């Protein structure tokens, strides 16, 4: 789930922070300014404009600004890279901030987007109409036959990179399995190249050989690098950037709210039917953890209540727990130092939003009792 941190202007490009180390750990981006550098650059510009507010000689202002730019003792090279060269650029950069100033195409016009962009909101995910399929992708509007349903930029992956080996009872041989991402990739049985669609909701499009209403094809947009289609496999595998894209195209008129379905092919269907052999049929009233967590009226069942109304086998009750600083040494990365484990009784408070990342702060817990006071439930 991705949420906004601030109001976003129509036509703005969306950015998410990977963390400051993302640039520092990549030699090609070692000199890219970081947030602290842009903040420092913004302050330098504000100070300069304030100190020279009554000076109108542009040439003199430029000489004064050049002195600041050439004074290496004032700031480091990353902050220097965040500062405009021309004094005429300072007022505009101070209005929007230097980080945004150096992205002149940060906001695109609607006309530009209609001409160059692709619609990303034709799909929304929900409970699939296909038994045992879980989530599915549904149309948010009427989509005519032959129209684009969704673009799917592709990340190319070497299938061998997804292999996992698990020791079996201490034997010399290990059990070979693949990572779960393999289920969401396109590929060919005679090729080790896999294509993963990195597009919202496209991964939720399910299979139906009889009810399919969509197909995949190579994109005809400028985002597709046509030369990739004829390059040797090893050259594509060696590339560190993406260049391939699918388009999901409607093969018939699709109505608002209708599930979008692809035909994965006979081999996939045979493998799926084999997988279902011996599988437990999911009940119609099956509750996903997403539904349970998002339901404002749902309660967390006590151990006693779970005897008569159990959760599904893949559901677990957990508490979001923040460890005190002095307790952080019981962890090595995301792994527990089991020799340092101990019991501790704390008062747990429900967070408005879960603000802790990873499983480090997710602790298994059993609910022994629940009491209602006013509009709130209190658990023990």
Automatic annotation (TrEMBL):
Signal sequence bounds: none
Domain SET: 121-265
A family per Pfam: SET
Source superkingdom: Eukaryota
Name the record gives this protein: SET domain-containing protein
InterPro entries: SET_dom (IPR001214), SET_dom_sf (IPR046341)
Organism: Ditylum brightwellii
């Amino acid at each position: 789930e991705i949420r906004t941190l601030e109001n976003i202007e129509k036509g703005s490009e969306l950015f998410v922070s990977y963390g400051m180390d993302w640039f520092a750990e990549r030699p090609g981006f070692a000199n890219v300014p970081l947030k602290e550098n842009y903040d420092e650059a913004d302050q330098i510009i504000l100070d300069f404009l304030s100190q020279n507010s009554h000076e109108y000689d542009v040439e003199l202002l430029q000489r004064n600004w050049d002195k600041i730019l050439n004074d290496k003792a004032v700031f480091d090279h990353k902050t220097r890279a965040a500062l405009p060269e021309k004094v005429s650029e300072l007022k505009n950069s101070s209005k929007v901030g230097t980080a945004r100033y150096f992205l002149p195409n940060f906001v695109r016009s609607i006309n530009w987007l209609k001409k160059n962009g692709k619609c990303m909101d034709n799909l929304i995910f929900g409970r699939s109409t296909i038994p045992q399929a879980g989530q599915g992708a549904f149309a948010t509007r009427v989509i005519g036959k032959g129209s684009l349903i969704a673009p799917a930029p592709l990340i190319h992956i070497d299938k061998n990179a997804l292999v996992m080996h698990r020791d079996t009872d201490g034997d010399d041989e290990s059990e070979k399995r693949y990572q779960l991402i393999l289920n969401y990739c396109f590929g060919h049985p005679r090729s080790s190249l896999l294509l993963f669609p990195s597009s919202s909701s496209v991964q939720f499009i399910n299979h139906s050989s009889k009810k399919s209403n969509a197909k995949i094809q190579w994109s005809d947009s400028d985002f597709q690098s046509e030369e990739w289609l004829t390059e040797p496999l090893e050259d594509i595998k060696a590339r560190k950037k993406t260049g391939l894209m699918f388009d999901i195209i409607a093969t018939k008129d699709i109505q608002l709210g209708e599930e979008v379905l692809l035909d994965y092919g006979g081999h996939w269907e045979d493998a799926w039917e084999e997988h279902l052999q011996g599988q437990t049929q999911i009940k119609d009233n099956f509750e996903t953890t997403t539904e349970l967590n998002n339901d404002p009226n749902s309660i967390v069942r006590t151990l006693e209540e779970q005897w008569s109304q159990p959760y599904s086998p893949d559901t677990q009750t957990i508490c979001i727990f923040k460890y005190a600083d002095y307790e952080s040494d019981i962890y090595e990365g995301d792994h527990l130092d089991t020799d340092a484990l101990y019991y501790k009784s704390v008062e747990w408070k429900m967070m408005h939003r879960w603000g802790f990342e990873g499983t480090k702060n997710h602790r298994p817990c059993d609910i022994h009792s629940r009491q209602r006071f006013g509009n709130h439930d209190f658990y023990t």
